[in-house]
């Protein structure tokens, strides 16, 4: 719901959805629900669900492959066209797996408990896409690290992804080699209950979800205003509210888009609108250089200017030309932002002066 704007976002969502399906197909309570809902022998339904989970895993792999192709420079405009081809391949391989797994289903055994050439076909069909994807991802990681134009953090990420790709590639190769060797020698595999394979799938899914949680956490903190930009916006909000209420003409026009603006854009607009308000309000009060030096004094003068403007007092002529103030075209935007944050910090202590001075001015004008 929160990360679906880009092609990669949607591919990640599809991969996570496929991993959820794959895990459900191996959960006992879900398998019992399937036996109640589907016709046929219970054991057959359970074994069919477990073999279908191979297809769910391959669907994860196909989406990772699609992400890797984009990473490798493939045309983004044809991403979904390519993905349909990958999904068709997954569907075809899944059918092959189900056909090759028929003897095991009929015997009510796991595929590794009933070794034979159908099992070899099953594991080759399953491991080949995994191996191809691992090679592609590993090659891209090596290429990116060899360019040297990456940060230390990016290098760490590439190393982790490379290690994961190598581990998956070796695991896929080991499964095929071990199965062929056991069939040729008529020996059982080392893990006929397939605990190691189940652990490998669960671990890979965990890391995939963990990696996707990184941008998710970033998005959540941004949406909730908990990031640094969001905190700046919240701190400036009271000052901005009072200033733009006094000088509404400085508020920039908004678009018809109902989505909340990006915090960085919102902060930039607030900064400009506060700055323009201050430039407008300084006409209503006499200021000198010393007033700008102390945020406590400056905010007090701002409150007096707002009160003067809202009560209809005409602008005053100020001959002072202060040096230290937020002004249009200032080059150091970061310094300007921190000046405004200092004003925002002092602002709550003088907000009451707006009403007090306004009432005092009204009284004096009535007299």
Record the SSE blueprint.
Elements: H1 7-24, H2 28-37, H3 42-71, H4 79-100, H5 102-106, H6 117-147, H7 152-185, H8 195-223, H9 228-246, H10 263-281, H11 289-293, H12 295-310, H13 333-346, H14 352-366
Explain what this protein looks like in three dimensions:
The protein is mainly alpha-helical. 73% of the residues lie in helices and 0% in strands. It contains 14 helices and no strands. It has helices spanning 7-24, 28-37, 42-71, 79-100, 102-106, 117-147, 152-185, 195-223, 228-246, 263-281, 289-293, 295-310, 333-346, 352-366. The protein is elongated, with a radius of gyration of 33 Å. The model is unreliable at 319-330 and 358-367 (pLDDT under 50).
Question: Which features would summarize this protein structure in a list?
Answer:
367 residues; mainly alpha; 14 helices
Mean pLDDT: 82
- Helix proportion: over 70%
Report the major sheet: none
Using only CA atoms, what is the Rg?
33 Å
Poorly predicted segments = 319-330, 358-367
Approximately how much beta-strand content do the residues carry?
under 5%
Number of helices: 14
Q: Structural class of the helices, strands and pairings? A: mainly alpha
Number of strands: 0
State the end-to-end CA separation.
62 Å
């Amino acid at each position: 719901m929160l990360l679906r704007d880009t092609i990669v976002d949607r591919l990640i969502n599809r991969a996570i959805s496929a991993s959820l399906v794959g895990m459900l197909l191996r959960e006992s309570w879900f398998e019992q629900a399937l036996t109640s809902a589907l016709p046929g022998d219970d054991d057959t339904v359970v074994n069919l669900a477990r073999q279908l989970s191979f297809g769910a895993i391959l669907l994860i792999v196909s989406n990772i492959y699609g992400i890797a192709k984009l990473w490798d420079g493939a045309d983004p405009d044809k991403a979904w066209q390519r993905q349909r081809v990958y999904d068709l391949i997954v569907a075809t391989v899944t059918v092959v797996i189900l056909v090759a797994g028929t003897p095991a289903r009929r015997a009510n055994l796991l595929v590794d408990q009933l070794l034979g050439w159908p099992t070899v076909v099953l594991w080759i069909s399953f491991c080949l896409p995994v191996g191809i994807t691992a090679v592609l991802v590993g090659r891209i990681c090596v290429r990116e690290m060899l360019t040297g134009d990456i940060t230390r953090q990016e290098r760490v990420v590439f190393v982790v992804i490379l290690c994961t790709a190598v581990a998956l590639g070796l695991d896929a190769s080991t499964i095929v080699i071990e199965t062929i060797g056991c069939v040729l020698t008529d020996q059982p595999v080392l893990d006929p209950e397939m605990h190691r394979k189940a652990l490998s799938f669960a671990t890979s899914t965990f890391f995939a979800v963990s990696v996707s949680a990184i941008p998710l956490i970033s998005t959540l903190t941004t949406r909730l205003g908990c990031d640094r930009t969001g905190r700046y916006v919240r701190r400036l909000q009271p000052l901005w509210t009072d200033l733009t209420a006094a000088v509404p003409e400085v508020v920039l026009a908004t678009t018809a888009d109902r989505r909340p603006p990006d915090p960085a854009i919102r902060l930039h607009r607030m900064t400009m609108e506060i700055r323009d308000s201050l430039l407008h309000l300084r006409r209503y009060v006499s200021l000198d250089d010393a007033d700008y030096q102390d945020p406590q004094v400056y905010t007090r003068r701002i409150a007096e200017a707002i009160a003067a403007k809202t009560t209809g007092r005409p602008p005053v002529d100020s001959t002072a030309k202060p040096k230290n103030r937020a002004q249009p075209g200032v080059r150091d935007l970061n310094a300007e932002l921190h000046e405004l944050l200092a004003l925002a910090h002092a602002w709550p202590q003088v907000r009451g002066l707006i009403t007090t001075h306004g009432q005092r001015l009204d009284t004096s004008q009535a007299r």
